[in-house]
From TrEMBL:
InterPro entries given in the database record: ACT-like_dom_sf (IPR045865), ACT_dom (IPR002912), Chor_mutase/pphenate_deHydtase (IPR008242), Chorismate_II_sf (IPR036263), CM_dom_sf (IPR036979), CM_II_prokaryot (IPR002701), G/b/e-P-prot_chorismate_mutase (IPR010957), Preph_deHydtase (IPR001086)
Record-given protein name: Bifunctional chorismate mutase/prephenate dehydratase
Keyword terms: Amino-acid biosynthesis, Aromatic amino acid biosynthesis, Cytoplasm, Isomerase, Lyase, Multifunctional enzyme, Phenylalanine biosynthesis
Domain of life (superkingdom): Bacteria
NCBIfam families, per the entry: CM_P2, PRK11898.1
Catalytic activity line of the entry: prephenate + H(+) = 3-phenylpyruvate + CO2 + H2O; chorismate = prephenate
Gene giving rise to this polypeptide: pheA
């Protein structure tokens, strides 16, 4: 058989598209049936199952031997699942607004594009909107690879009762932008995190320019749309969204700048796998307060060693409102219902002043 012509190849693509469309339709029908099963169950209001979604995406990546990159193949399935979940329950997701922030990018990466979003004015506001039931879930930054923990999020995790039910990572690349490049720049607006992440570049390139910190990068982009002589540091998405011109590309000081975001909800993630505690590829986050005495930190850590549990993270953070007192934010491997994790947590609880299990959730897949 000779080489196929363009129209022959396109005919073959049409045949495949028809099959794919039919299969996606069949999948949607099954998901609608899943919704019925969930409605009849105990936790009938919880349709979103992050542990199952993570399992689906991991399997997609594992068996991908196509020409498409893993991340692109997973992205396609991410969108299919998003549309399917919307059949069960249309989700509303709170994020740090306005449109065009990295938090919105994180929300859409994690939930896909079939959700509606609620833009919030601050990290505190995101927690409150979820708490009040105005959004099903919220997305907040927790940690940046160059700058460390986001204190405002840790403060709220300490004082609020929301549960962590997922995490997502976003590569952060900052763009310097303005409405009109021909004007000299007298002021640069950005979120304080972005100013920190671009500090060296700003010192080298705009040593005498005023830097103004605002609530989000997208807000900075929005402000400079109408301000002569002003520039903003924001994302590629904000650059397009607000119709601005790029002055400089990727100005972050460190390559590989990544921010990790948490997904917050009101309930612990459902244990829809019978063997969740053993099959779960995830972590558990804890907030712990210990006595200010010799040996108490060792006492806190010992039970994890005894049970052979790997600790992913140990962060010290000031207790909100209490001078020179600290809490510890700890991430360990495994689900809180896993036998060894359970034993360790019971032992930890008997050794510390306070332990708050923030949630068990799948490790970021993409
Ligand atoms: C279909 C389900 O419900 C939702 C949709 C999913 C999907 O489209 O695969 C996966 C998990 C849930 O968020 C399920 O729980 O299995």
């Amino acid at each position: 058989m000779g080489k196929r012509t363009l129209s022959e190849l396109r005919d073959e693509i049409d045949v495949l598209d028809k099959k794919i469309q039919l299969l996606i339709g069949n999948r949607a029908q099954l998901v609608a049936k899943v919704a019925q099963v969930k409605k009849a169950s105990d936790d009938s209001s919880v349709f979103y199952r992050p542990e199952r979604e993570a399992q689906v995406l991991r399997s997609i990546i594992k068996r991908n031997n196509s020409l498409l990159k893993d991340k692109d193949m997973a992205y396609i399935f991410r969108q299919i699942m998003s549309a399917c979940l919307a059949l069960e329950q249309p989700l509303n997701i709170a994020y740090l607004g306005p449109e065009g922030t990295f938090t919105q990018e994180a929300a859409l990466k994690h939930f896909g594009h079939s959700v509606s979003t609620l833009d919030c004015v601050s990290i505190d506001d995101i927690f409150h909107q979820v708490e009040k039931g105005n959004a099903h879930y919220g997305v907040v930054p927790i940690e940046n690879s160059s700058n460390g923990m986001i204190g405002a999020t840790v403060d709220m995790l300490y004082s609020q009762n929301l549960k962590i039910c997922g995490e997502v990572e976003i590569a952060i690349q900052h763009q310097l932008m303005s409405a009109n490049q021909s004007q000299g720049i007298t002021v640069i607006y950005a979120h304080s995190q972005a100013l920190n992440q671009c500090q060296r570049w700003l010192n080298n390139n705009y040593p005498n320019t005023e830097l103004k910190s605002v609530a989000s990068n997208a807000l900075a982009a929005c402000i400079v749309k109408d301000e002569v002589g002003a520039a903003a540091i924001a994302s590629e998405v904000a650059l397009d969204l607000y119709g601005l011109e790029r002055i400089a590309k990727n100005i972050e000081d460190k390559a590989g700048n990544v921010t990790r975001f948490l997904i917050l909800g009101k309930e612990n993630i459902s244990t829809s796998f019978e063997n969740i505690s053993t099959s779960f590829e995830g972590k558990t986050s804890l907030l712990v307060v210990i006595k200010h005495e010799s040996g108490t930190l060792c006492d806190l850590l010992e039970p994890f060693k005894q049970q052979g549990i790997n600790m992913i993270q140990l962060e010290k953070h000031p207790i909100p409102g209490v001078k020179w007192e600290y809490l510890f934010l700890i991430d360990i491997e495994g689900h809180k219902d896993n036998k060894k994790v359970k034993l360790a947590l019971t032992e930890v609880a008997s050794r510390v002043l306070k332990v708050n299990v923030l949630g068990s959730y799948p490790i970021a897949v993409l």
